[in-house]
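Supplementary Text 2. Reproducibility record for the structural model of the 183-residue chain.

All settings were left at their defaults, and a single model was retained for analysis rather than an ensemble. We include the record here because the model underlies the residue-level annotations in Supplementary Table 4.
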Amino acid sequence: MSALFHWGNALRIACVDVDYRPDMAVAAAIWFRGWDAAVAEAQAVAGFRGGVAPYEPGAFYLRELPCLLGVLREGPPADLVIVDGYVSLDEGRAGLGAHLHQALDCQTPVVGVAKTRYRSASNTVEVLRGTSSSPLFVTAVGIDVAVAADEVRRMHGPHRVPTLLRSVDQLARHELPTRLIEH
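Retained model, structure tokens:
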């Protein structure tokens, strides 16, 4: 686990996000090298129709996980994945990131970066960035959460949300999919 961070800028990180539109879900991924990267080395946007589960509080992963796995297959293998959300929700209850980690055969560390507080989330580190007084909430599996929080803190960009996390959000929200996947 700690050897992962001796790779420096060679570490390939993927950040992923999903947006829900009336007729489909759109997942986006950006791959970059090193935590402090300012630009992506690859990106993918995939649309998903049929079989996208409805939103269910506490079971968000049922809706999002198939889309994340699908878009991750569209690019190079990642050494670590960052999700928009939580890895763990509360003691003993897995969040989206833990389910993704398990789907990736528990080989790839997953870091959750959430913009809103989930009251019962455990093992969360609050990260302040830029001049914002609103923290990001970092959780992790396969990497120490304190190390993950420090890395999120130093990611590129002057704002609360790091540059490439903002970019993947914008891709999911505004781009048309380059590939359409039927569930």
